[in-house]
Design goal:
alpha+beta; 812 residues; Rap guanine nucleotide exchange factor 4; 34 helices; five-stranded antiparallel sheet; globular; binds adenosine-3',5'-cyclic-monophosphate
């Protein structure tokens, strides 16, 4: 028996909210947020009056004042008593108090405004509250939006990873919430008839077998109780809670069987030599979607089905966007070539020609899709170029001119961006990278001036062969400068630095040391190391034997910037910020996002463009905090605060969410938000403006406000990248890549959809007035490109106290 206690519970992707430990409050909310199953139909049609409203009002005062409400919490009554669940609450729903108070009805006039305020206050508390409240609804009362919300949650539940998304959708419709308030409560006993399958949502349970005691502990994300459902036998063990307030997902046996059977019915399983090689899901009559498969069988499917080069979201598109997770570039190339050349034995002479020609056409179109997806990164790869050459020759020899043209058109588009990439010093990027690399060596590093033309992103993306200077330091602060390709791995940088400094390379490792002295050891095959470092981070080679020893950061890592904040207008500064962000976003490649999700070091490909975009957000944020904390004069500090709010407003107007949020979050940074005198002097109108911006950052409901806001903005949008990356990481962590030896293509499709929705923000071009403004002022352009910051929170807090000491109230 394996005791899972030794292994920490895997992340479920959620922070546990204190609400979960306060079931009284939670139940009240649940009860208010859904109509009770015991309610009469008239109550259901007007669910927000009477007792429910009264409770809502009580809850409002409770959540505000953190004191229990006037009316006692309704006592939780089980919907159905579990076998020996003591006072367990099934489905998490206390029965609503029968009182539909007449006095409350009279207050109906102000219901809506009160309700809006109440719900707003409650739902701001946490996304978890909302999801629990939704789960607590009776399945028959769930709206489509409820089911969608639950489905999104289920995508992150470890125990359900092996289920297809269609099954998860079914589960979302019927799953129930079960709550056990105390430790030591039994969910069921060994020997009883099994009637439900469970997943631990919060808390943990012991699995107890008669005569053996506790054989195992199950944690968040684990499941139990399936065995007896599958065998139609008795419970093989008893399950007992270990912690207060444990929450479980419960799927009743009828639902369990129905879902599994209906899924079996609509799934087509293809076997080859007795082994399952592909699962397809029937969508409509005659239309199937790949849900799982071996890489080889999926390649067969690719060349065996019609390929629409224009259609994003097609199987080919999803396949090429995500293939790195399950099939190397070399294998895809050789697989396609083999299929191009082969003439299958079963293809008879007369029909054979037609079948072969169709296959060749499809392969050509598939490769065109691949080029469109991977762009310039692909056309620089020697293996891919081999495939391309053979395909072009073959298509020409076979007289398939139309396909040859499709291929060449995609190619010329990508080569154009590849040619642009031949500049080894891409001005803005080099400026930015150089800024990363040139700490302590003065500004600029002798680079060319930025070259930005009106309305066009003329700055080429960073390419693997671009050369960059990099400084590597030792513990004793001795430094050596190297010039390396961007795709140089951490191990190779360490080797080169050691040989320059005459140190034995096997004794050293490459590390990043942050401005606060934190040390991060880099993996041998880490790539894009220069762009991955923190804003003021530096590369060090440190002895392996001293891994526990602290390293003192270089002096310049915490140096205060000397260049004053520009006097230019907020409008101009916002235009410069936006053009810079837009350039970085335009240069980011779809494949970089995919490499980053599956582990950047695995593929040997750079993710520099994505890194630069991600770190720009942090840079801008620290720039604002640094500027505020370095201004000792109160009047000027208030003027700065006002200017930053204005800049944020302009960025918002330009759909530059990345910089807009960087500014708003910077002004909420403790080092700035603590400046009471400064905020007090700010005009009320500006304060209200800031509050309206701040409301967009509301983290509740998984940043629902921000998501909705961002999706509605006019294109192009520079999105809030940290949120996008978080979503991608959740999808990756929450879903297996391989299930029973087959690639989980549903996961690939979900990831591909996320990547596409990110790049859809790039539709269109920046407004002309932004480009005009941003091209007018080279001085400001340079300043915005090379912003210098303090990125050490402790230093910033210290600076903040220096410029605005805490005012202590006089003691009486
Ligand atoms: N040794 C064990 N290790 C982990 N889980 C177990 C063990 N024995 C039983 N279980 C779980 O406990 C559940 C008891 O009910 P079931 O028999 O339906 O399904 C059982 C399994 O899910």
């Amino acid at each position: 028996m394996v005791d899972k206690r030794s292994s920490p519970p895997a992340p479920t992707g959620h922070k546990v909210h204190p609400f979960l430990d306060d079931p009284q409050l939670f139940y009240k909310f649940c009860d208010l947020n859904s109509s009770s199953s015991s309610s009469s139909s008239s109550e259901r049609s007007a669910p927000l009056v009477g007792g429910r409203l009264q409770q809502l009002m009580n809850l409002f005062s409770f959540s505000r004042n953190s004191t229990p409400s006037a009316s006692p919490a309704p006592s939780p009554t089980p919907r159905r008593r579990p076998n020996s669940g003591e006072d367990a609450i099934v489905n998490g729903r206390p029965r609503s108090a029968s009182s539909v108070g007449a006095e409350s009805r009279s207050s109906r006039g102000s219901i809506h405004s009160v309700l809006e305020e109440c719900f707003d206050t409650i739902s701001r508390l946490s996304p978890e509250v909302l999801i629990l409240a939704t789960l607590a609804k009776e399945p028959c009362e769930r709206t489509e939006e409820d089911k969608n919300m639950i489905y999104e949650e289920l995508l992150n539940v470890r125990a359900l990873r092996h289920l297809t998304n269609a099954v998860k959708r079914e589960v979302a419709a019927c799953v129930r919430l079960q709550h056990h308030p105390r430790p030591g409560q039994y969910l069921f006993h060994q020997g009883e008839k099994g009637d439900s399958w469970y997943v631990v949502l919060k808390g943990s349970v012991n699995v107890i077998i008669k005569g053996k005691g506790v054989v195992c502990t199950l944690h968040e994300g684990d499941d139990f109780g399936k065995l007896s459902l599958l065998t139609a036998g008795e419970r093989s063990a008893s399950i007992r809670t270990r912690e207060p307030n444990s929450y479980f997902l419960q799927i009743e046996s009828n639902d369990f069987r129905r879902i599994l059977m209906s899924v079996e019915d609509s799934t087509l399983k293809i076997t080859h030599r007795g082994r399952e090689v592909m699962h397809l899901q029937r969508e409509t009559v005659g239309s199937y979607t790949v849900i799982r498969g071996t890489p080889e069988r999926m390649l067969d499917h690719l060349v065996g089905s019609e390929v629409d080069t224009s259609q994003e979201g097609s199987f080919a598109h999803d396949f090429f966007l995500t293939h790195v997770a399950f099939m190397s570039m070399a294998d895809v190339c050789s697989g396609l070539l083999t299929r191009y050349r082969e003439k299958k034995e079963e293809e008879k002479e007369s029909e054979g020609e037609v079948v072969t020609t169709t296959r060749k056409k499809r392969i050509a179109r598939a490769v065109a899709v691949w080029i469109n997806v991977a762009k310039s990164q692909l056309v620089k790869d020697a293996v891919f170029l081999g495939l391309l050459k053979e395909l072009q020759d073959g298509l020409e020899a076979d007289g398939l001119t139309e396909e040859l043209e499709v291929l060449n058109t995609s190619l010329s588009e990508s080569i154009r961006s590849a040619i642009l990439g031949k500049h080894t010093h891409s001005p803005v990027l080099s400026g930015s990278l150089n800024h990363i690399l040139s700490k302590g060596r003065g500004r600029g590093g002798g680079l060319e001036e930025p070259r930005i033309t009106l309305g066009i992103c003329s700055v080429p993306p960073a390419q693997p062969q671009d050369m960059e200077g990099v400084r590597v330091h030792t513990e004793e602060h001795i430094c050596c400068r190297l010039v390396v390709r961007l795709d140089t791995k951490a191990g190779a940088i360490r080797d080169e630095a050691c040989s320059k400094l005459h140190l034995p390379k096997f004794k050293y490792q490459l590390c990043e040391v942050t401005s606060s002295g934190q040390k991060k050891v880099l993996k041998e095959d880490d790539i894009s190391v220069m762009s991955e470092t923190s804003v003021n981070g530096r590369l060090f080679i440190l002895p392996r034997s001293h891994s526990q020893r602290t390293v003192s950061p270089l002096q310049d890592q915490n140096v205060k910037p000397v260049i004053p904040f520009p006097e230019d207008s907020a409008r101009e500064i916002a235009a410069h910020l936006t053009l810079f962000d837009w350039n970085l976003f335009s240069n980011t490649q779809q494949m970089e996002v995919v490499y980053n999700v599956f582990g950047r070091h695995k593929f040997g490909k750079i993710v520099t463009n994505l890194d630069l975009l991600l770190r720009r957000f942090i840079e801008v944020k620290f720039w604002i905090v640094t500027t505020m904390c370095m201004e000792p004069d109160l009047t000027r500090r208030v003027a700065l605060l006002k200017k930053f709010i204005k800049i944020a407003g302009y960025c918002k107007g330009h759909s530059n969410v990345n910089s807009f949020l960087a500014i708003v979050l910077a002004l909420s940074n403790p080092a700035v938000s603590r400046m009471k005198l400064t905020w007090k002097e700010l005009a009320p109108k500006m304060k209200r403006r800031f509050d309206s911006f701040d409301a967009i950052t509301d983290p509740s409901r998984n940043q629902k406000v921000l998501r909705a806001y961002q999706s509605k903005l006019p294109r192009p949008v520079v999105p809030f990248m940290p949120l996008v990356m978080k979503d991608m990481a959740f999808l990756h962590e929450g879903n297996e890549t391989m299930i029973e030896g087959l690639v989980n293509f549903e996961k690939m499709r979900l990831l591909a959809e996320k990547v596409r929705s990110l790049f859809e923000f790039r539709t269109g071009s920046l407004p002309n007035d932004v480009c005009l403004l941003a091209n007018k002022n080279p001085e400001l352009q340079k300043y915005i490109r090379d912003i210098r910051v303090v990125d050490n929170q402790q230093t910033l807090t210290q600076l903040s106290h220096e410029v605005e000491p805490t005012v202590r109230p006089l003691s009486t």
